[in-house]
Structures are given as C-alpha cells and as structure tokens.
C-alpha cells in the first residue's frame, strides 16, 4: 500500500548537495555500478520502457535472476532514462542513446538500473545472461536537479528541462551533456504521490 502512496523503501543513490536554491539543487553523486540496455522501443511494440523488463529479469525482480550466478539483486530507485535531445521517458531506470547510424540513434533509448552500493566494481556484479545488458561503472558526477510530482509526460519534462538549463546557465554553470529523467515510483503509484527528477550534467 505504501508504494501506491509514493513511499520509497528501497536504496537510492548517494550524493552530496553542493548548492540549493528555490530553482534547483547542484548534487555530486558518488561512483556507482549500473546495468543498462540500449534498444529501439519498437522492439517492444512501442513501449518506451520495454527495456525495464529485460533489466528486471537480470536482477531477478520478476522471478529467477537471469545472471550467471544466479544471484538476486535488490531493486534500487530511481530508474533513469536518457536519449537524444528529444524527450525520453525513464524511471529510476536510466535511458540514453546507443551506438548506431544517425537515423537509428534517433530511435534508440538506453535504460539504466543503478546497482546496490555493495557492488563497488563492475566485475563484482553478477554477469548477465542476456547479452543486451551491459554492466559498467560510472564515476563521480555532478548534476543540476529539479524534483517534481505527478506524471512525467513528455511535455512536462521538456518544460522542466528547458527551465532548468536556463537557470543553470544564468547562474554560470556549464551544461555538459544530455538530461536524465529519474522516476522513483512504480506505475501504480497515484500521480499526486509520485516523485520525479530531471537531471542535467554540469561541470
């Protein structure tokens, strides 16, 4: 019942708040290990979050873990998504673009699960059975972040990103990459209780 009302009861990434204002926070995130999949959503009949099932199978969230140990891996949040400067929907899974031709890249999405902090190196995490799942390390990174509730529609996210970038640049920060959309709640959480964030990497 708690998840319906937005309660977050799983591990979240560790970060330090460097600056806080009414408009945004500047956060420095510690290094982490991630599991990611890059895919064309049309492979999943147009479901932009189709990669979620593949990653959830890897950690064993939907049954037996599909990794070589096999070892169940605790779910964390958010799910993050990242892709080109069009809006890509994600949830404390992350999505971004993959390596392909220019036209193909426009359709590609990368979704990421942050693995629990007990995995300090990529080789410490169980190896995926599904070759589409890549395990890699992310170093320390800094983001400008805005938190918001409700449903993270493409239109809402676009507005948040544009406003955040403008505020960051006005305050002298240099934007150095694509934004991420982090969603902290499962789809059945009531919209007024959802937690979302847009994250823009800065120097």
The CATH superfamily is Regulatory factor, effector binding domain
* Low-confidence sequence ranges: 84-91, 95-103
Order of helices and strands: EEEHEHEEEHEE
The CATH class name reads Alpha Beta
How many helices? Answer: 3
Biggest sheet architecture: 9 strands, antiparallel
End-to-end distance, in Å?
40 Å
Would you report the number of β strands? 9
Overall pLDDT, averaged?
85
What topology, given as strand order, has the largest sheet? 1-2-7-9-8-4-5-3-6
Look up the CATH topology: Multidrug-efflux Transporter 1 Regulator Bmrr, Chain A
Structural class: alpha+beta
Shape: globular
Protein name: Heme-binding-like protein At3g10130, chloroplastic
InterPro entries: Reg_factor_effector_dom_sf (IPR011256), SOUL_heme-bd (IPR006917)
Family: Belongs to the HEBP family.
Pfam families: SOUL
What does this structure look like?
The protein is an alpha+beta fold. It has a single domain (15-201), classed as Multidrug-efflux Transporter 1 Regulator Bmrr, Chain A, CATH 3.20.80.10. 16% of the residues lie in helices and 26% in strands. The chain contains 3 helices and 9 strands, in the order E-E-E-H-E-H-E-E-E-H-E-E. Strands 1-2-7-9-8-4-5-3-6 form a 9-stranded antiparallel beta sheet. A hairpin with a 4-residue loop joins strand 1 (15-20) and strand 2 (25-29). The longest helix is centred in the last third of the chain and has 17 residues, at 154-170. The chain is globular. The model is unreliable at 84-91 and 95-103 (pLDDT under 50).
